[in-house]
Amino acid sequence: MREILRFGSRKILLYIAAAVAVGLVASYVVMPAPDSPKLESKEGILDLTQVHVSENQLKLAGEWEFYWQELLSPEEIQNRLARDGDHVRWISIPSSWLGYRLDGQRLSGTGYATFRVVINLSEQDRNERLALRLPTIFHAYKLWANGELLAEVGTVGRDKSMAIPHLTTKLVFFQPENDRVELVMQVANFHHHRGGITKPIELGGSDALTVRTHLNIAAEVFIIASLLVIGVYHLLLFALRRKDRAPLFFGLFTLMFGIRSLLVGELLLTQLWPTFPWELQFKIEYLILCSGGYIITMYSECIFPNYISRWFRHGTRILTGAFCIVVVAAPAIIYTKMLPLIGVMVVLQMVYLMVGLVQAALRRTEGALVFLLVSVVALVTVINDFLYYNEWSLIGNTSPLGLLVFTIAQMLLLSSRFTRAAANEERIARELQGANNKLTEMNMNLERTVQERTQALSAAHDDLRLSYDQLLQSEQGRKKLLAYITHDLRMPLSSMLGYVEAVQDRVKPERNDQYLKYIRDNTIRINRMIEELSFLSHLETGQVSYRMEPVHVVHFLRRFYEQYELVVRDAGLDFRLDCGDEEDQGSDSLVVVMDGQRLEQALFNLVSNAMKFTPGGGAVRIALAVDAVNLTRYAIISVQDSGMGIPPEQLEQIFDRNYRVDQPGAEMGVEGSGLGLAICREIVQAHGGTVRAESDGKTGSIFSVSLPCTGQLFSSSKNRVRPCQSREL
Known about the structure:
- The structure is a single chain.
- α3 (206-240) runs parallel beside α11 (399-435), α9 (339-362) packs antiparallel against α10 and α10 packs antiparallel against α11 (399-435).
- The protein is α+β, with helices and mostly antiparallel strands.
- Strands 1, 2, 3, 4, 7, 8, 9, 10, 11, 12 and 13 form an 11-stranded mixed beta sheet that branches.
- β9 (140-145) and β10 (148-153) form a beta hairpin.
- It has helices at 2-29, 74-84, 206-240, 246-261, 268-272, 278-303, 310-329, 332-335, 339-362, 368-389, 399-435, 437-442, 444-504, 512-536, 553-570, 581-584, 596-612, 676-686; strands spanning 40-41, 45-48, 58-68, 90-93, 101-102, 105-106, 111-121, 130-134, 140-145, 148-153, 170-174, 180-189, 201-205, 549-552, 574-578, 591-594, 619-629, 632-641, 690-695, 701-708.
- The protein is built from 18 helices and 20 strands.
- It is flat.
């Protein structure tokens, strides 16, 4: 039964592989034309008055005005047409100007030129936002639409020293001002043997082209990621078992063509790394093309060692090495002319391999038929790519898809090899097991007893481990809650103690009622804080609720200052509040939606932190300023001290939980749990704001809290922060 199932699954796999191969080949042969209308420009004019471009994407093809060895701006072209009349030179797009006959002579691939086409739009498209999807254009260009510069890739110049090549795809958008769109493009090429607009430019609605571009990128990302992951996986397999070299060559082949896929199609490499060297990009692509045939030959020899002759293996090695040396040593304008030769070499290598695969399949060698079918798919897609890049095929980049199909099939083939090896090991193990059956029976009772005792001990150990983890988690939660309680109740109690001592010592008898009110308020606040401190441990997970309401920032700061003034001054520090122009403009000038209690807790943590690190005789200053970003006002509340400062390299870490400033030579006996700044950051971020610290490590620190204000910005004069004027309350 097992043999029947194994034969059946293998037969199903062959049917699936055959269906995939035949389907891809048939789709290539009978691939229908795109659904977009087939319209071409005539003598530089494209009539689209009967077509809705925003709904039907169109490839711009046909005759464009052609100004050879001239770099003309739209204004210069208009002046020339007004002076000299109609233009009499046109060139078919898409195509290279290489071989274009001009004044009885054929043009070379290098040079520069200006292209122009006029597009007449329909009534519906005048008010639509349109887009142009620009392919790779060899090799630097500028594009204007109705006199507006839309795109510039590389640097266009009149000689090689002035021109800087670059290769990328672009999606640009524009709004037609009327029913006439004039496209003017300057193109320069001095580094490749073919220059000009060799691929079609697509025109359509901005949304449709954007979606299509994103789908293309997503498809390429999927294929590239699959190739790279499969390649790295098989290289790791070879590193673990170096006796079999098939995973090595297969991993190298897949990894290399995964990298090449980054350099073709949507050119994801240049989109992720715009400054990637153009020459290196082409060298990598051509080196992969040259060496791909040799690597797949070595892989085939590892899979079917008796079907590749010695002369073919050595000849392939020599020819591949020669091409690679030329690519490395020569400039792009030379080795790019060798693309047809490289294509012929790769195709001949694959044809030779497929002849051997046919022989192996006829001899019913395991895996040969699958290898043959997917090789046909890969060969068809590779041939199409060579034809496409030589402007002989209308179908775009198909080799990544074909290589993905080829790679998946080879991965299954290698997996079957590993499966067979594992099956052989299992068979040997079964034979050894049969020889040791008697010994196993003799020791069965002892082993069973040991196993039962081991399982019991393991279960008890697991229970103990689970109990220990639960106790440890409970202890950590208790310590964390205790740290929160210790940190947040210390200063309110100290404040109440200060007020009590002020009443007892009759510091200001006329303010005794106010002090008693502060004591009562702090008592209520402490009771509320005790009820809510258990939720503070959930701040980082957003499980704490906030009572948000609009609050006048000036009133809020004044109340905060009056509440903690005595505490700070009793610590031997000068305490000041600076509200600048905001206090003069009235209480309604600056409003923030906040939870007053939570934000007071965060601000108090900053003041408390400043008091800890400021020696007696120093100063703590609270300042208010206004900043504006994108028509939104922000209230900037800063707490500045004259303490020992914070080392600049620690500024990014001080807001981490339990982090303590480590500054040699600054032992001030400062104690704290290290939770204050972390709690402050979480509260401020919950209000949609930010908190940051500034210090040079010597002359104190400044902590700034930025909170968004309600309402719109009324005057451009508020676009900058207004410096606060010092005012001591």
